[in-house]
Amino acid sequence: MRFNSKSGKFLEEAIMQFSSLPGIGRKTALRFALHLLRRPENEVENFANAILSLKKDTKFCSVCHNISDSDLCNICADKTRDFSKICIVEGIHDVIALEATSQYNGLYHVLGGVISPMEGISPSDLNIASLFSRLDEGNVQEVIFALPATMEGDTTNYFINRKIENKNIEVTILARGVAIGDELQYTDEITLGQSIINRKPFEK
Amino acid sequence: MRFNSKSGKFLEEAIMQFSSLPGIGRKTALRFALHLLRRPENEVENFANAILSLKKDTKFCSVCHNISDSDLCNICADKTRDFSKICIVEGIHDVIALEATSQYNGLYHVLGGVISPMEGISPSDLNIASLFSRLDEGNVQEVIFALPATMEGDTTNYFINRKIENKNIEVTILARGVAIGDELQYTDEITLGQSIINRKPFEK
Description:
The structure is a homodimer. Chain A is of the alpha/beta class. Chain A has helices spanning 9-18, 26-38, 41-57, 92-101, 129-136, 151-164, 189-197; strands at residues 59-60, 67-68, 82-89, 106-110, 142-145, 170-173. In chain A, the strands form 2 sheets. The first copy, chain A, has a 4-stranded parallel β-sheet with strand order 4-3-5-6. In chain A, strands 1-2 form a two-stranded antiparallel ribbon. Chain A starts with 8 loop residues before the first helix and ends in a 7-residue tail after the last helix. At the A-B interface, helix 1, helix 2, helix 3, strand 2 and helix 4 of A face helix 1, helix 2, helix 3, strand 2 and helix 4 of B.
């Protein structure tokens, strides 16, 4: 749909901005804009201010690079967490996903990406030096790899593991296998192959 | 996913705002927020300002109630349009959809809704009085009903038609029938029934 000249420049600008969001086309962007037009002015102001604040006021934790309101994120500042475990993740969304499971009580380290020669991302582009500094402090007993199950994720795991294998730190990785609720016939061959190789004693 | 306490109040506020948009849940809202976090500050400012402008600076046409940058919308101000035709639509999105077809050169009248006793929307809640004023000026020769093909749309058509049937104005309605690209077996019975009743001479 084209509606530049007919529908006014303010609507057009809002549509352009909304359609820059991931997965949003012009039709959905138009729907968002018309939705906001129908809402009271103070609500729309709050909407715009939340976006401004998000960018201006959000900080990143100086220890683990997670999103934070202050110098130290809520996880690193939480004395009840297990400081002997560091879970290495690609991004903030992974911290959120793992926290939502309520199954992990250790700390995190957000790399900000994974090593990818194809995309020109080398270890120096990631938060890896600060990871080694944390490990050098000597309190960490376990490093958990929770990077994507892709070639780039595996490459990054290998790179980090090589640097720390002489440090007497236990290194673990998230279990890979058939997802809960999945049917075997629809599980890809590599995952299924890994899951039979890594089969576990059945718990009664 | 719950991540209020862990991920910072600015992120949480942005997620809350984005998830107030139609069809957007918390996961997609999080994706939008993290996407904006990665963009440069000036781009995020432009985004927020576009939303503010949309609400503050957008006007509505004093004649047809379409969205506008000034007192008169681009369609009502366009001397090349056919001022003898008025197409009656529910909302701005309908003007945009019809304009996108490039098949209509008349004017519009945006009702801002349809009559719905169930939702307590009566004719006085809609831009109907201003429609009759326009018709009273005597220049209009055709009124085209382009309201939704629902009971409420039909009710609104009947209401308007009763008020203007003595005015010597031709009243038409959008053709209803099998949509282009649709297969008959998947077309609902009422639409298919209407399309056989209203069948047209085949054009070679």
